[in-house]
Amino acid sequence: MNVEEEVGRLREEIKRLGKPQDDGSYTVTFGVLFNDDRCANIFEALVGTLRAAKRRKFLTYDGELLLQGVHDNVEIILKPEATASDAVVKS
């Protein structure tokens, strides 16, 4: 699986596990993602996939590196679809 595919799968999993917000975003804690069996089977390197998604501005969270146990309560916010895909310019 390439990085783009992994980021897409991560977005799906955050929607599955997270809580929808009024603005169209979803929130989930790192601990919920890390401890989910399905996520464990999909992502070889969850932290790396999270960092790639953050660099592409699909999601946000405090800090750079998340570690199991220490950062289980860190909230990960998946941005709404419209803002995440604003690279497409309509004429």
From TrEMBL:
Record's protein name: Costars domain-containing protein
Pfam families membership: Costars (PF14705)
Organism of origin: Penstemon davidsonii
Family: Belongs to the costars family.
Ranges of residues in domain Costars: 1-79
Highest taxon of the lineage: Eukaryota
InterPro entries in the record: Costars, Costars_dom, Costars_sf
